[in-house]
Amino acid sequence: MSEEEKAAVLIEALPYIQRFAGKIFVIKYGGSAMGERFTDVILDIIWLKQVGIHPVVVHGGGKEITAMLERLGHRAQFVEGLRVTDEAVMEVVEMVLSGAVNPRLVAAFNQHDGGAVGLSGVDGMLLEVAKKHHPAGDIGYVGEVVHVNTALIEGLLDRHLIPVIAPVGVDREGRRYNVNADEAAGAVAGALGAEKLFLITDVPGIVRRGPGGSEVVSKITAEEIRQLVESGEIYGGMIPKVKACLTALEAGAKHVHIINGEDPHALLLEVFTDRGIGTMVLPAGEGPE
């Protein structure tokens, strides 16, 4: 890349930096996407902070949880992308998320002077939950977020810190619950009125069948997502992701993006370039151009 091309990249980013300075971005970073581009994602998030954006990270850890359960002789069970969680599984979930994945992420941020602070949803009742009831039956200690302690998050942002949240919730009786990371991120984004929610995954976005085969949808509305779920075109592990999109938008987040964490610097490309990458989910009344 020539010096002129490097300058053009910076100039292209300028209006986006001006538009988003001071805004909150919630970023869900899934365990399935924590691969070769791990450092790229960490640096992208730090870059957001350095240009005046306030990033909040909610992480997953599904692959690590499943691997630990297998080591302990447990078989993982899922219902529509939600992990069936009995007491034994809940212990493993909390051990892996709060005791392994969260510290690893925080250490990676701070290795690059990111100023990150690790939190569990239990801390300060950050994620207050109620037991999730599913039509398929009892799925155990799986929680649905009913309240987010935004004051705790905002206090950290005011101190120019990056909150890194493990999706373990707690109810008023002190019972701890496994919270789907996508749904937790959606709840946090909505409660904060975030400018954007990013779901960083191992897929390129929402894919639907077209005349030439499967293709990634660049922009889609909340209503179109509901139709795709009802038709069965969106299914399995993608259901919690799109439900998180809808939850965030309905609660006040402005836009949601689904991007592939294995693409180099996908987060920066989605935010600071005209073309973007992945799928942007638009609120009701704001259709694709």
From TrEMBL:
One of its GO terms (cellular component) is cytoplasm. It catalyses: N-acetyl-L-glutamate + ATP = N-acetyl-L-glutamyl 5-phosphate + ADP. Keywords: Amino-acid biosynthesis, Arginine biosynthesis, ATP-binding, Cytoplasm, Kinase, Nucleotide-binding, Transferase. It is an enzyme of class 2 (transferase). Substrate binds at residues 61-62, 83, 178. It is found in: Cytoplasm. One of its GO terms (biological process) is L-arginine biosynthetic process via ornithine. One of its GO terms (molecular function) is ATP binding. The keyword Hydrolase does not apply. Residues 23-260 form the Aspartate/glutamate/uridylate kinase domain. Catalyzes the ATP-dependent phosphorylation of N-acetyl-L-glutamate. PANTHER family: N-ACETYLGLUTAMATE SYNTHASE, N-ACETYLGLUTAMATE SYNTHASE, MITOCHONDRIAL. This is Acetylglutamate kinase. It comes from Kyrpidia spormannii. The gene is argB.
